[in-house]
């Protein structure tokens, strides 16, 4: 026995040492994976809560346990990720992702007996619905309430889910009844469902799961409508209806396939051809750094433009008084009205950034209206420029009109005044904030406030869109005519005509507002480059018009080769419009 003990003791010690080493290595591996995650409620460690190789049990009890987790763990994991260290509690993150994706499927299974699940950050309703349903099925989603079945008589802006009857009719051959589960999940404290490529934020940090039997991801012909109700959003905010695609990347990501987005002032309607987790992503066009740089560029450019606008008007009066030019030249007078409106717009913008800091609501509304007025005047005089160019270069008419310039001024200055008066009576002006992806204000202006977005879309976007379309048609016709004239010349004169023709086209493009058309390209992947180009070109518009005006009109005009704003208009305009 003694000899036996002596023989087995080394083996026992070796075995104990080996088991201790293995246990230490397992513990070390667990600690490395969950280093900064110190625990959950009830003394449960991250590694204990989420055992490697085992998924969480998909039950309401487990869901309640998840709700009780101390999410300091998740916050520390996010900090480690931001520092580009190894992610901690990755086990917990992955398990929670898979749990909620499985839980939406669990609610519609036969073994589940829950009709209502009401937790602090998760609400769900499960109903048995007849597959012979003869109308669409509507559920309303009120904040902090369990989804409830509604009907078409629901009024007001309320979030809702509308399931078309076609979904149920397609299942009628298989079953008489089917379970429908609607779940609203708030992920604000979890840091879950974050796409690595995601630049926007979830609306209210809320996800909505829609499930009908086994149709959670299967596509169908009918459109499921998910309406997200919200307050008026900033004008620069892009909205995208997305669903969580577990097959995207390593841990899943947001996908827009099969979903259409209908943006309205106080709600966004998502029309999707499948069922799963959905949310509304809000993507502000500008981050803080870009917004500040664009604001600085705009201020410098507007200061330069304002200075050269004054020089252009001064040069006009010098030529008019000293050389007796432009006495009956309506086109040049139209140029001066455009420059005056541009001067007003630049001045209002520069004052805007100063007044908004005074925190005086009355002054802010006033300068917001003046800025809007200056912008509309610019657009209107650009349209008048195109109209005059059409008369001179394309129609070439000798129609006589009494007080022609006075009538143009009534339109150019009077119509914008009428629009601004109506918008002001609707209390449309006030502080407008541009926010970044974190919903933090980056730039504040006195402008049309976010609650009157429709005023902006009608008076600015739609109005300018129509003007730009008409102006570009006129410009295209003029360019075509210039090309025809160039083909009739030869030799050295052809080079001179080409140079002056190019200068004429560039000048006319600036006068007709072609550079403002870049505003329609400030969405999507090229939004930031387009914004920089838009800001630089339009803030310096006064400089470009000054150069064009000085080259073509000073010190003398060449009636044979100048643009349509030169000697040619002396003949046509004088005969046509006195």
How many domains would you count in the coordinates? 3
Q: Span from first to last CA?
A: 132 Å
Q: What Rg is obtained from the alpha carbons, in whole angstroms?
A: 34 Å
Task: Please estimate the helix content.
Answer: 40-55%
CATH class of the largest domain: Mainly Alpha
Relative strand content: 15-25%
Largest sheet: 8 strands, antiparallel
Which secondary-structure class do the elements indicate? alpha+beta
- Within CATH, the superfamily of the largest domain carries the name Rhodopsin 7-helix transmembrane proteins
**Uncertain residue segments:** 1-48, 81-89, 557-578
Q: How many helices in DSSP terms?
A: 15
CATH topology of the largest domain: Rhopdopsin 7-helix transmembrane proteins
Mean pLDDT: 76
Structural account:
With 578 residues, the chain is α+β, with helices and mostly antiparallel strands. The chain has three domains: 35-106; 109-284, Chondroitinase Ac, Chain A, domain 3; 288-577, Rhopdopsin 7-helix transmembrane proteins (Up-down Bundle). The chain is 50% helix and 17% strand. It contains 15 helices and 16 strands. It has helices at 2-33, 46-49, 60-67, 72-82, 90-106, 165-169, 288-322, 330-355, 361-395, 404-425, 453-487, 492-511, 527-539, 541-553, 567-577, and strands at residues 116-118, 122-130, 137-141, 148-150, 159-163, 177-186, 201-202, 206-212, 224-229, 237-245, 253-255, 259-263, 267-272, 277-284, 429-435, 441-448. The strands form three sheets. Strands 1, 2, 6, 7, 8, 10, 11 and 14 form an eight-stranded antiparallel beta sheet that branches. Strand 10 (237-245) and strand 11 form a beta hairpin.
């Amino acid at each position: 026995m003694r000899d036996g003990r002596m023989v087995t003791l080394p083996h026992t010690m070796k075995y104990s040492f080996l088991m201790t080493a293995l246990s230490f290595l397992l513990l070390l591996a667990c600690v490395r994976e969950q280093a900064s995650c110190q625990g959950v409620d009830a003394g449960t460690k991250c590694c204990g809560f989420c055992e490697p190789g085992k998924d969480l049990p998909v039950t309401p009890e487990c869901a309640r346990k998840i709700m009780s987790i101390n999410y300091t763990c998740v916050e520390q994991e996010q900090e480690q990720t931001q520092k580009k260290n190894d992610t901690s509690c990755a086990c917990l993150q992955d398990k929670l992702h898979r749990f909620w994706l499985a839980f939406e499927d669990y609610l519609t299974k036969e073994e589940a007996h829950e009709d209502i699940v009401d937790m602090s950050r998760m609400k769900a309703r499960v109903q048995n619905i007849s597959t012979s349903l003869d109308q669409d099925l509507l559920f309303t989603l009120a904040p902090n309430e369990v989804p409830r079945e509604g009907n078409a008589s629901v009024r007001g802006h309320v979030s809702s889910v509308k399931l078309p009857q076609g979904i149920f009719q397609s299942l009628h051959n298989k079953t008489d009844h089917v379970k429908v589960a609607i779940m609203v999940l708030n992920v604000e404290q979890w840091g879950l469902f974050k796409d690595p490529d995601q630049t926007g934020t979830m609306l209210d940090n809320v996800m909505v799961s829609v499930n009908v039997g086994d149709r959670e991801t299967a596509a169908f012909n009918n459109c499921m409508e998910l309406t997200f109700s919200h307050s008026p959003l900033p004008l620069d905010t892009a909205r995208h209806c997305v669903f969580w695609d577990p097959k995207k990347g390593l841990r899943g990501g947001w996908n827009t396939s099969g979903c259409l987005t209908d943006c309205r002032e106080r709600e966004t309607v998502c029309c999707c051809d499948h069922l799963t987790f959905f949310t509304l992503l809000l993507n502000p066009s500008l981050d803080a750094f870009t917004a500040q740089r664009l604001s600085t560029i705009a201020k410098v450019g507007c200061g330069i433009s304002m200075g050269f606008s004054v020089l252009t008007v001064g040069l006009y009066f010098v030529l008019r008084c000293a050389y007796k030019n432009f006495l009956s030249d309506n086109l040049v007078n139209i140029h001066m009205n455009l420059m005056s409106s541009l001067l007003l717009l630049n001045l209002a913008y520069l004052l805007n950034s100063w007044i908004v800091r005074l925190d005086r609501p009355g002054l802010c509304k006033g300068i917001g209206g003046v800025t809007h007025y200056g912008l509309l005047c610019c657009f209107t005089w650009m349209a008048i420029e195109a109209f005059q160019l059409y008369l001179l270069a394309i129609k070439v008419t000798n129609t006589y009109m009494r007080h022609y310039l006075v009538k143009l001024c009534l339109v150019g200055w009077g119509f914008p005044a009428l629009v601004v008066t109506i918008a002001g009576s609707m209390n449309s002006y006030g502080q407008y904030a541009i926010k970044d992806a974190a919903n933090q204000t980056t730039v504040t202006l006195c402008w049309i406030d976010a609650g009157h977005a429709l005023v902006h879309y009608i008076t600015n976007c739609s109005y300018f869109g129509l003007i730009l379309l008409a102006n570009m048609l006129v410009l295209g016709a003029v360019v075509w005519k210039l090309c025809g004239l160039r083909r009739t010349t030869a030799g050295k004169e052809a080079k001179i005509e080409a140079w002056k023709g190019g200068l004429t086209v560039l000048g006319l493009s600036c006068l007709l507002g072609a550079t403002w058309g870049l505003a329609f390209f400030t969405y999507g992947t090229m939004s930031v480059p387009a914004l920089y180009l838009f800001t630089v070109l339009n803030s310096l518009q006064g400089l470009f018009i000054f150069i064009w005006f000085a080259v073509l009109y000073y010190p003398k005009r060449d009636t044979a080769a100048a643009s349509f704003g030169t000697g040619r208009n002396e003949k046509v305009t004088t005969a046509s419009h006195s």
